[in-house]
Design brief:
The complex is a heterotrimer. By secondary structure, chain A is α/β, with parallel strands linked by helices. Chain A has 18 helices and 14 strands. The longest helix of chain A has 19 residues, at 401-419. The two termini of chain A are 26 Å apart. Mean pLDDT of chain A is 89; it is low at 1-29. Chain B has one domain (65-287): MetI-like (MetI-like fold, Orthogonal Bundle), CATH 1.10.3720.10. Chain B is globular. The two termini of chain B are 36 Å apart.
Chain lengths: 420, 288, 319
C-alpha cells in the first residue's frame, strides 16, 4: 500500500528505485569505484586522495571516479546512498559515522583488518593501533578505516611561553590571571561555532570522568545529578566570569578568533589537532605551535577520534572499495597526512609533525581514552537543539553552573519524553 | 505643530535617511569592488584604504579555485534558459487566464496563485526523491545517462511559475481588449495573434517577469545545493560558498572578494541597463 | 483554499461588459487556444509542484529517512514532537517575529519613502539604488558579513571613530535583530518600487488641491497617496507574508555560513530548523521536516486570509 502511494504520488518514476532491469548494464560500472569526498580538491587531503586514486587505478586497473563536493556538498549524501545512488567510498569520522550506521549504510569492515597492505607484507591490523581501530568501531563492527587521528588540546606559541603545561585547574586559572594582568587576552574563542564552545564543558567533564560521562546526560536525566557534572560546569562558569576570552567572543564569526590567535593576539585556543594546519598561512613569523591537555584531574582521559573512509553498504563495489582502503593505508600515503596535511597520521610508525608529537604521544600513552564529544553528537536533535544552545548560555555567562545543571536535567527529561 | 511635524520634521528626516541609505548601498558595492583588487594582507589590515597595487590576479585566482569557470557557465546557461522557459510557459497561460470568460479561468488563476504560498522547503523532500528517482530512471531505462543540472533547471522553472503567472495575469488584464480582436478579425490564428500582436504590447510586463526571474535564478542557492552538489554541476552562489569554506586554509581574501564581484556585479550591470523596465512592468502586473 | 483571493483585483480593466456579447457570438480564437496555451504550464506546475506538496503532506504522517529506507506510519507523531520541541517552538516564534516585526519596518519605511519620493530631487535615482540590495545574492552578503560585523570588524571600527562602543552584532542575542535589519534592508526597495510606481499614476491635480487647503505632506500621503495605492499595498502585504515565512538563506549567511555548525537557537527560523532535520548530518528525518513544511503552509494560508481581510476593511474609496 505504502509503495503504491509513493508510486502514485511521485509518479512512475519511483518505480525505478530498487528496480533491477537496467538499460545501462551493471557490467560497465563494475570496474569503477565512486568516491564522493567532503574535502576540497585543493586541500592537501584532496590532493593526497587524488594521488592515491591514480596509483590505485595504475596498480589494479580499477578506475576511481572522484568527486570533491566539499563540506556542504555531502548534506544529502545519506539520502542518496539510501536510494542506491551513493558512492562506494565516502569520508567520515568518529562523530559522524553513527548516522551512517543507523541507516545501515556503513559496511562492516572487520575483514579489512586482515587484508594485506600492498608492498609492506603486513596486515592492516598490524599497522593501526588498537586505540585508532576503537575510535572507528561501534559496538558491533569496524565501520571505517582511519587515515588521521584527531584530538583536542589547548594550543599556544612556545616561542613566547616555552614549556607551558599547567598540571591542575588551579595552575591553569593562575596562568590566565597572570596573562590578563599583563594586559594580554588569555583565550581566543570563535563563539559563533557552538561545537567549539562545547569543547570546554566536554573536556572538563570527560577528561576527568572518562568515556560515557557526557553522553549519559542526553540519555538519563539522573546523570545530571552527579557531582562531577556540576564541578565541570563550575569550571566553565569560572572561565565565563573571569573575563578571559576576547571581548564579545560569542559574536566572533569563525575563523576570526583562531586567525587572531595565529597572529599572536590571544595566548591560548582550545581546539582540534587540525588548528595549526587550518591557520598555517596566518601564523605570525616565528610562531612555534605547541599544546597541552586541558588539566582536569581524575582519569585524565584523552580524546582519540579519527577521520577516515567508510564503505557504502549499498554500493555496487564493496569488495573493490575494501581493497582501496588497504591500498590507501600504505606508509607513503600516511606520511603525506603528516607532511602535507599537517595532521596526526593514523599509523603510529609515521611521525606526526613536530608540534603534534606531544599529542601523538598523549594519545599513544593514555590509560583512558574517549571518543570525539563522547559520542553525544550522534543524537543530533539533542545535540543541536538542546545541549549546544544550553552550553552556549553557560559559556557566555548568561546562566551559572547550578542553573545549567538544573535546566539540563529538566530539558533532558523533556527531550526523552518528547521522543515518546 | 502639525505643520512642523507633517511638513518639515518627518519629510526632512525621511529624505536624509533615504540619501544615507543610497550612500550606504553605493559605498558597499564600491567597497566590495575595491577589496577585490587588494592583496590579502591589505584586505584584512586596511579595509577602507585604496588598494596599494591593483591585484587583477585575484580574479584569475577566484576563477580557477572552486571551479568558478564551470560555475559561471552553469549559472549563465541555467539562468538564460530557465528564465526564457518560465516566460514561454507562463505568458500564454497568463494570457488565456486573463482574457477568457470561462469560469475555469478564475479558478485556475487562484490555483496558480496558491503556489505562491507554498514554501520551497515544503517540497524539498519530494524534490530530493524525484531527483534521485529521475536520474536512476533515465540511466536505467531511457537514455543511459542523466545530468542533474537538467533536474535543477526543471525545478527552478516550475517553482518560479506561480509568481510569473500571477504577475502576467494581472498585466494581461490591464491591456486594452481591442488588440487581439483586431488581429483575430484579420483571420490570424491564436498562436500568430499571440506572438505578433499580444506579446509586443505586453512587452513591459513580460520583461519584468523575465528580469525578476533572471535575478532570482542567478542567486538561487537552496535548490542548487540540494540537487547539484558536485563541482562540475555547481552554480555561482554554491561556488562562492565553497570558496568561502576553503578560505580557512588558503586565506586568499582578495580572491574571495573577487568571487563576490563575479557573482554580484553582472546583476548590477543588468539592473543598471534594464532597471527602469522592471519597475514599469511590475506596477502594471502586480499593482493594478 | 483562501489563497485564491490572491488573484489580483481586476479594477482597472474588467473584461469589458459591452463586448462580452460580441465575444460569445464569434467564439474568439483565444477561447479555442484556452487549453493549448494553458496546459504546458498547468501540467508542469501540477506534476512538479502541487503533487510533490501533497506527497510532502503524506510524508509528514510517517517516519522516513528517505528513498530506499522503510517508511513507517507515525500518525500525528511528528506534529506532536514538534509541539513539544523547544527548538521548533523558538523557530516558530522567530518566524512570526520576522513576518510581523520585519513587515512593520518594511512598510513603515515604504510609507515614509512614498511621502517624500514624489517630489524630492533625484527620486528616480534613489528608487533604483534602494532596490539594489534585492538583486545582490544573499550568499555574497553572508560572505562579507564577517568582515563587517565581527567584534573588531568594519562596522565597529566606524562606530569607534565617532565614539560609539563596539557591539556584539553576531552574538546569540543580537544576531536575530541583525538578520531582521538585513532582511528589511534587502527587501524594502522592492516594495518601494512597487508602490511608488502605483503612486506615479495618481493625477497631480489632487495634490495641488490638497496643498491649497493647507494639507501637510504627511496628510497628503495619508489621505491621497495611501488610499489610492491601497490595492497595491494589499498585494504587497500578501507577498511580504509569503516571502517572510520562507526566510532561510539570510539566517545561514549571518550565522554559520562556511561551517557545519547549527545557527544559534535564538536566530533559527522554521525553514532553517527544517533544513537541519532533512540534511546536514545525522539520520534525515524527512517526516519531521515535512511536518514543519505543512505547519508553515497552514500558517501562510491563515495569514494570507487575515491580511486580505485587514487590508479590505481599511480600504477607502476616494476616486
Amino acid at each position: 500500500m505504502r509503495k503504491l502511494t509513493v508510486m502514485l504520488t511521485v509518479g512512475a518514476l519511483a518505480l525505478s528505485v530498487g528496480a533491477c532491469g537496467k538499460k545501462n548494464g551493471s557490467a560497465a560500472s563494475e570496474k569503477e569505484l565512486v568516491y564522493t569526498s567532503s574535502w576540497g580538491a585543493d586541500e592537501p587531503q584532496g590532493k593526497l586522495i587524488k594521488s592515491i586514486a591514480d596509483d590505485f587505478t595504475k596498480a589494479t586497473g580499477t578506475k576511481v571516479d572522484l568527486k570533491f563536493v566539499g563540506r556542504k556538498g555531502t548534506d544529502t549524501l545519506p539520502t542518496e546512498m539510501n536510494a542506491g545512488q551513493g558512492p562506494d567510498l565516502f569520508d567520515t569520522s568518529t562523530d559522524s559515522v553513527g548516522a551512517f550506521v543507523a541507516q545501515n549504510l556503513a559496511a562492516p569492515l572487520d575483514d579489512v583488518l586482515d587484508m594485506k597492505v600492498p608492498g609492506e607484507g603486513k596486515k592492516v591490523r598490524d599497522v593501526l593501533p588498537e586505540s585508532v581501530v576503537k575510535a572507528s568501531t561501534d559496538k558491533d563492527h569496524v565501520r571505517f578505516m582511519a587515515h588521521t587521528v584527531i584530538s583536542t588540546a589547548v594550543w599556544y606559541d612556545a616561542s613566547k611561553h616555552a614549556g607551558l603545561a599547567p598540571k591542575t585547574w588551579k595552575e591553569f586559572i593562575a596562568y590566565l590571571d597572570e596573562a590578563k594582568k599583563d594586559g594580554r587576552t588569555p583565550l581566543g574563542q570563535d563563539g559563533t561555532v557552538n561545537f567549539y564552545n562545547a569543547y570546554w564543558f566536554y573536556s572538563a567533564l570527560v577528561r576527568s570522568e572518562g568515556a560515557g560521562s557526557l553522553s549519559a546526560l542526553g540519555k538519563d536525566p539522573a546523570a545530571w545529578d552527579r557531582p562531577a557534572v556540576l564541578a565541570a560546569a563550575k569550571k566553565v562558569e569560572e572561565l565565563a566570569d573571569g573575563g578571559y576570552f576576547q571581548k564579545d567572543f560569542m559574536a566572533t564569526k569563525y575563523p576570526a578568533a583562531q586567525d587572531a590567535w595565529a597572529q599572536g593576539k590571544y595566548d591560548l585556543n582550545l581546539n582540534g589537532t587540525w588548528l595549526a594546519a587550518e591557520t598555517g598561512s596566518k601564523l605570525a613569523k616565528g610562531t612555534e605551535v605547541a599544546s597541552f591537555q586541558l588539566p582536569a584531574g581524575g582519569k585524565n582521559s584523552v580524546e582519540v577520534g579519527t577521520l577516515g573512509w567508510g564503505v557504502n553498504a549499498k554500493g555496487h563495489n564493496v569488495e573493490a572499495a575494501k581493497e582501496f582502503l588497504a591500498f590507501a593505508l600504505q606508509k607513503k600515503y600516511e606520511a603525506k597526512i603528516s607532511t602535507d596535511a599537517h595532521n596526526i597520521p593514523a599509523r603510529p610508525d609515521v611521525p606526526a609533525p613536530g608540534y603534534l608529537a606531544g599529542v601523538q604521544k598523549d594519545v599513544a600513552e593514555a590509560k583512558f581514552t574517549h571518543r570525539t564529544y563522547d559520542d553525544m553528537a550522534a543524537d543530533k536533535n539533542w545535540w543541536n537543539n538542546v545541549f549546544l544552545p544550553l552550553d552556549d548560555q553557560l559559556l557566555s555567562g548568561k546562566i551559572d553552573a547550578a542553573t545549567f545543571v538544573k535546566t539540563g536535567k529538566k530539558k533532558a527529561a523533556d527531550y526523552l519524553a518528547s521522543k515518546g | 505643530m502639525r505643520r512642523l511635524f507633517g511638513d518639515i520634521l518627518v519629510p526632512r528626516a525621511t529624505t536624509v535617511a533615504l540619501w544615507a541609505w543610497v550612500v550606504f548601498n553605493l559605498a558597499l558595492v564600491a567597497w566590495v569592488g575595491l577589496q577585490s583588487l587588494k592583496d590579502s594582507g591589505q584586505v584584512w589590515l586596511s579595509p577602507f584604504a585604496l588598494p596599494d597595487t591593483i591585484e587583477w590576479g585575484n580574479y584569475s585566482a577566484a576563477w580557477k579555485a572552486a571551479g568558478f569557470s564551470a560555475a559561471a557557465l552553469n549559472s549563465t546557461v541555467l539562468t538564460v534558459v530557465g528564465s526564457l522557459l518560465i516566460v514561454a510557459l507562463s505568458a500564454p497561460a497568463a494570457y488565456v487566464l486573463a482574457r477568457s470568460d470561462r469560469r475555469a479561468a478564475g479558478r485556475l488563476t487562484g490555483y496558480f496563485a496558491m503556489g505562491l504560498s507554498i514554501p520551497v522547503q515544503t517540497i524539498v523532500i519530494p524534490i530530493i526523491v524525484i531527483k534521485l528517482s529521475v536520474s536512476t530512471f533515465m540511466i536505467d531505462w531511457v537514455t543511459g545517462w542523466w545530468d542533474n543540472r537538467i533536474t535543477l533547471l526543471v525545478f527552478q522553472v516550475v517553482l518560479s511559475l506561480p509568481f510569473a503567472v500571477f504577475v502576467l495575469t494581472g498585466y494581461m488584464r490591464s491591456l486594452p481588449h481591442e488588440i487581439e480582436e483586431a488581429a483575430e478579425l484579420d483571420g490570424a490564428g491564436p498562436l500568430r495573434a499571440f506572438v505578433q500582436v499580444v506579446l509586443p504590447v505586453a512587452k513591459p510586463g513580460v520583461m519584468t517577469v523575465l528580469i525578476l526571474n533572471v535575478i532570482g535564478l542567478w542567486n538561487e542557492t537552496l535548490l542548487a545545493l540540494l540537487i547539484t552538489p558536485t563541482p562540475e554541476e555547481r552554480t555561482l552562489p554554491a561556488a562562492l560558498l565553497s570558496l568561502y569554506g576553503s578560505m580557512q586554509y588558503s586565506s586568499d581574501w582578495g580572491a574571495l572578494f573577487a568571487g563576490i564581484v563575479i557573482l554580484v556585479y553582472p546583476m548590477i550591470v543588468l539592473y543598471l541597463w534594464l532597471g527602469r523596465r522592471i519597475v514599469e512592468g511590475m506596477t502594471a502586473g502586480i499593482g493594478k | 483554499m483562501g489563497t485564491a483571493t490572491l488573484t489580483p483585483p481586476a479594477a482597472v480593466a474588467p473584461p469589458a461588459a459591452g463586448k462580452a456579447g460580441k465575444g460569445k457570438r464569434v467564439r474568439p480564437a483565444r477561447e479555442r487556444a484556452f487549453w493549448p496555451f494553458l496546459l504546458p504550464a498547468l501540467i508542469a506546475y501540477s506534476a512538479l509542484f502541487v503533487l510533490p506538496s501533497l506527497f510532502g503532506f503524506w510524508v509528514s504522517f510517517n517516519k522516513w529517512a528517505g528513498p530506499g529506507s522503510p517508511m513507517t506510519w507515525h500518525g500525528l507523531g511528528n506534529y506532536l514532537e514538534l509541539a513539544r520541541s523547544e527548538a521548533f517552538r523558538t523557530s516558530f516564534v522567530n518566524t512570526f517575529v520576522l513576518a510581523f516585526g520585519g513587515g512593520a519596518l518594511v512598510f513603515a519605511f515604504t510609507f515614509l519613502s512614498m511621502m517624500v519620493l514624489r517630489q524630492v530631487k533625484g527620486r528616480a535615482f534613489i528608487r533604483s539604488v534602494i532596490f539594489l540590495p534585492m538583486i545582490i545574492s544573499v550568499i555574497a552578503v553572508g560572505v562579507a558579513i564577517g568582515f563587517l560585523l565581527n567584534p573588531d570588524g568594519a562596522v565597529n571600527t566606524i562606530l569607534g571613530w565617532v565614539g560609539i562602543e563596539a557591539r556584539p552584532w553576531l552574538g546569540p542575542d543580537m544576531v536575530f535583530k541583525c538578520i531582521v535589519a538585513g532582511l528589511v534592508w534587502s527587501s524594502t526597495g522592492f516594495y518601494v518600487a512597487l508602490m511608488m510606481s502605483a503612486a506615479d499614476s495618481i493625477p497631480p491635480y489632487l495634490y495641488e488641491d490638497a496643498k491649497l487647503i493647507g494639507a501637510t505632506k504627511w496628510e497628503q500621503f495619508r489621505h491621497i497617496t495611501l488610499p489610492l495605492t491601497w490595492d497595491v499595498f494589499a498585494v504587497s502585504a500578501v507577498l511580504w507574508v509569503v516571502n517572510s515565512l520562507k526566510v532561510f538563506e539570510i539566517v545561514i549567511a549571518f550565522t554559520t555560513a562556511g561551517t557545519p555548525a547549527s545557527p544559534p537557537i535564538q536566530a533559527r527560523t522554521v525553514a532553517v530548523q527544517q533544513y537541519a532535520s532533512v540534511a546536514g548530518g545525522g539520520v534525515p528525518e524527512l517526516g519531521s521536516g515535512a511536518a514543519m513544511g505543512v505547519v508553515i503552509l497552514i500558517v501562510t494560508t491563515i495569514l494570507i486570509v487575515l491580511t486580505r481581510r485587514v487590508t479590505r476593511r481599511e480600504r477607502v474609496e476616494l476616486s
